[in-house]
């Protein structure tokens, strides 16, 4: 592949992933380390009733944190029970549909 | 959810909650898609997205409520083969991509719906419109303002990169209180040769969509703040010069004013409006 084609491809991929985080080798830094201990307002200005260092409020200080499989990679195979207890094999269940896979923190808190 | 079902896109949610907890949540909020229970966080670990800022021996664990095992939250969009075509991982857990933006990303096209807020500006050469990817703005949810230039046949506008002396089409959202504005994404230009001028210039023709990410922030509304606005007026500036093969019309700058409804802030445990 000529170099310019590769560069164009990389540029297009970069533009497509503007909101995607970089992967890092070292440990991820928490945002609360840069804030006053005990404060309830985080660095996005969001105020809730528990302090910023509480485990339930911990998020990275920068955009450098692991975000798993990259664009162009196939998602790993996995099987998990759904809310009704039925075991869902992701790739088999998806069949030949496009999919959206959402990892979220908790449905409880 | 109809947005995804109508587009033939399967949706899966994954968290470390138990099946019983997910069932209760699904019943409360009428969730129709699969909520998968990764109770020991094995899949979260396999994906490599375990939140390592939370330690397994955090004091909450002794209190019977462990936060250890949650992921850095995010969304993967895949094609028909399960290959990732786009992913959205934001630094802050409160920040997320809107349903409309995810849907448009999965399909690689923009869905223009009647119920989506929009504003239009017409000239003889080009119809300019600005519209939101969603029916409303939501707290820390990244939606897209699309600015669409619909050029009459045979006309073009210029795009970057461009030599000096030519005007590239632009759409921008100036600083707006309560709104975080991301970098605008422009479509790919087409190089066109102009033999009489002896130059090749980057041009757009037909329908040109500029996508500007917008996220309402805590400045607009914060948990506990009862005085949340029910709409936000977002200024949209456009600059364009339309040309035919033989003539260029006067360049124009216009200020559009897009009034966007602001959705209510969801509170944990509060029943969700439908």
Overview of the molecule:
The complex is a heterodimer of chains A (109) and B (274). Chain A has 109 residues and is α+β, with helices and mostly antiparallel strands. Chain A contains two helices and three strands. Chain A has helices at 3-16, 90-94; strands spanning 79-81, 87-89, 98-103. In chain A, strands 1-2 form a two-stranded antiparallel sheet. In chain A, strand 1 (79-81) and strand 2 (87-89) form a beta hairpin. The longest helix of chain A has 14 residues, at 3-16. Chain A is elongated. The N and C termini of chain A lie far apart (50 Å). The relative contact order of chain A is 0.13. Mean pLDDT of chain A is 83; it is low at 8-20. Chain B is mainly beta and 274 residues long. Chain B folds into two domains: 2-107, Glutaredoxin (3-Layer(aba) Sandwich), CATH 3.40.30; 118-261, Sandwich (Immunoglobulin-like). In chain B, strands 5, 6, 7, 8, 11 and 14 form a six-stranded mixed sheet that branches. A three-stranded antiparallel sheet of chain B has the order 9-13-12, with no helix packed on it. In chain B, a hairpin with a 4-residue loop joins strand 12 and strand 13. The model of chain B is unreliable at 268-274 (pLDDT under 50). Chains A and B meet through helix 2 and strand 3 of A and strand 1, helix 2, strand 2, helix 3 and strand 3 of B. Strand 3 of chain A pairs parallel with strand 1 of chain B, so a sheet runs across the interface.
